[in-house]
Design brief:
49 strands; globular; eight-stranded antiparallel beta sheet; mainly beta
Amino acid sequence: MNTTIDLLQNKKQLLLWCGLLCMNLVFAQSYQALDALSDFRNPPTNWQVVGEVTGTPADKTLTPKAGKGVLLCTPKESGNLLSNLEHGDLELSLDVMIPKGSNSGIYLQGRYEIQVFDSWGVANPLHSDAGGIYQRWDDSRGKNTEGYEGHAPRLNAVKAPGLWNHLDISFVAPRFDAAGKKIANARFAKVTWNGVVIHQNVEVFGPTRASAYTDEKALGALMLQGDYGNVAYKNIRITQLGNRSVAISTPVKYAIYENAYTQERKGAILEKPKPKDLATLKPVKTGETDLIDATVSKRGVQFYVFTGKFKVAKEGDYDFKSNCQGYANIWVDDVLLLSDDNTPWYGLSFNEETVGKKHLTAGEHTFKIHYTHRDWERTLRALALFVKGENEGWQALHAKQSELEYSKTVLNLVEPKTQPIFQRSFVVFDNKKRTHAVNVGFPEGVHYSYDTKQGALLHVWRGGFLNTTEMWHERGEEQTAAPLGMSVSMTGQFSLITKDKLDAVTESALRYEGMKLVSVQGQKVPQFSYVFQNISIKDWTQPTADKLGLQRTLSLSAKSTKLNVLLATATHGIQKIAEGVYAIDGAAYFIKLPIGTTATVVEHNGKTLLMTELKEQLFTYEIVF
């Protein structure tokens, strides 16, 4: 786990830092796509622009196709890309493909590196693995102690070589006073790799190793490292946040109440809290803060009321989003803007993100927030409010200590030890709740969720197994479980499909006959049984031999000339990469078939399907991610 060291320990420094954030309010933030070499300074010859790249888990190079939109580095020579633009605070999103054994890096301001490395399968990542904030380096520290202050990612979320990884980086530049003295360190506010938060509020005290510059400044170029092998980047999007168009303009006032609402049960259901008339209650604490902050009190179960004003530099439509640990409703100019329902104050739920939009004129506007938390969240208080205008990135109106700390939201987890385990739950798939799901975890660190009603794989993932917080705390009303690692969605459909009708098999055509544990290679693995078209089908999944993916097996009681195996569905295409290897959904994952097996790619109802003819009673394939 990373440790964040906060140098802004006193209010004077914090006020100065916030003041610098709010400078130059009259200027808009800037958005830019970096998809051509002309966006970079004197690009070296080891970089080129192509239209597409492909690779397999075994390839050390990438195969390009002509076109535009992808920046490809090949080892003709050593050379880094430095952007023409110089940035301060920014939000950066991009996709990166890393061949086997390759190494690159994303340097914010050319100084602070997020490591890009083939760390596929690494169980306990270091700062030098994919997603790590690379260490600093000082030869004067002595042999074997030159490196220091590196930050490992919270978990390894990198995909297999030859697949696209998506990153989102929120970066806060260092701050300097009028004399040029540094008063606040650079900070990675949040880094997300393939949808998993791997860093949050991590400060860096100086440039990391192999940076383009050894000093620190308010602005610097984005650098993509290109001296350690093949790598490809695409969809590079930058939103500079150096000029804020929205900012808190007056101190945030707060009043904290106890016993401010009632909550009743009807049978096993815990009803939504109902607020009392606050005018009849006396707050137990009042005060002011510079920004919205849910940590101003830590006593018991309390009800917070925040009020304040913010200033808007230009008229336009603004997006607001919030998440919290507990419940909150948020009003802007006395309009209830962020809430899940229309009740007077009860709205956002545990760890939920809600988004709203409002047209705002230039000038000052008011906000009001009602916030509380559930009894089991006594020590877990978090409340975040973000806002952005057109062509702007999200900016926070809350203190960083008030933001949801993702590493603390897992209160109940399940982990396999020496044998596979399974946990029944509801599972959210394609924004809908699947109510007959089983989650299966393996000690090897690869896992999956399965819909027994549909006979379908839902998600596969690597890393930790299962977050069951929403199943067991309070009444566990949500009954949902979620992966603890990097997750990839599967078809969500039955594994077989008829040749003459490619639509998904309906539940009425499928008879589920139960699950039992069977011994497979010394492990007890769940096996699911069905009857479809008078054929008995057994379906089980286990780790691949290299323990880096999953192998699925289908066993039929009789041959059928009418059935195909549905291997994958995609909205962004399916491409054959090598013999028996297919990249699914824009290289989100691979399907690997046995030697000699052919597959067919077809378009049906707006989706791309990958199928293979079922010639034998036993069929096996691999899912690589």
